[in-house]
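B., you asked whether I could sanity-check this one before it goes into the benchmark set. Here's the sequence:
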Amino acid sequence: MSAEIICVGTEMLLGNILNSNAQYLAIQLAKLGIPHYYQTVVGDNPERLKHVIEIASQRSEILIFTGGLGPTPDDLTCETIADFFNTPLVERPEIIEDIARKYAQRGRQMTPSNRKQALIPKGAEILPNPTGTAPGIIWQPQPGLTIFTFPGVPSEMQRMWEETAVPYLRNLGWGKETIYSRMLKFWGIPESALAEKVAAYLNLTNPTVAPYASKGEVKLRISAKAATEAAAQELIAPVHKQLQDIAGLDYYGADDDTLASVVGELLRRDKETLSVAESCTGGGLGQMLTETSGSSDYFWGGVISYNNSVKINLLDVNAEDLAKCGAVSATVAEQMALGVRSRLGTSWGLSITGIAGPTGGTETKPVGLVYIGLAKPNGEVESFEYRWGTGRSRSLIRHLSTCSALDQLRRKLLTR
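And here's what the prediction gave me:
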């Protein structure tokens, strides 16, 4: 048995709203151990919705609809489902009473259009909506097929799912197993290179391993199915350890870990502190570090040195070196790191200077050229050159640069 999520609403197709309902339901289905292979978004169009139902009902045993249950003419989910299965709609007086009561509690009068929400397919059960006016349905229009409908409002849908749908599914025998996943995170290695290293693990069946990549980061999702979450974690643990050993320093954490939080824990472990000097990233590095609660224990502050005068006067960058090498250079990156470490009195100094674009590049120093400087507690300093390419956006270049700066510090903290 498998489930399919069908989200109804033209606003999602236009990109006006984020489809968070599908993400929520996918997570919940995994907790119940219900396989889930397809998601569909369809606009407020009866014929297209019928086409979706025709396909979904042939390949899935549980269809979960969100959206299209309101009182307006474009709310067509319930009547379209009923029409597809050649079933008449019937008005349920208890729904009308519930809607009228909720309106009265708000000091308002129910409008005639709200009666539409009381029409559900004959034989369907009401899926109560404790907070909104649009109820859902639980219906088995044919053997081996169960349909759930929910309103599109996330808070309403989530409460209805937890209070009614989950107990219903458990009564059908679901929820005896769970699918638990752990996301392993890597930086500094391409997805293809990591996939080659762990190729033998990509064919496992329980747990399974699957690679993902986004914005310079590579991830491996390990998923296991078991009777309990603890049992699933036991299946995952040895595979996690093996993958971590294979990746070495390219592995930096799992699940909610970020490069900034991992660096923070390492600095806290060693009772050391950090300051940063930024040019092309405009404070992005400091922002990443301060997103971790308690970061003031180890992160003391930074300098955003966009203008060369700030590099000279606050960070003690040599004016002659600036004129000779340019602001975007290994020499200046190193001096910025040394300068901010000295000025703020921290153990480590980390700097970024580069050309984020879209303008400012030259033939010798193109857009995407970035230097990272790292000043160590013993006074030594080194730099790292990155060439992100001219085709990447300004925001992506800045993101890659801040993450790579944190990654270089992480590696030094682990290997010195």
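One thing to flag: The mean pLDDT is 95. Otherwise nothing jumped out at me.
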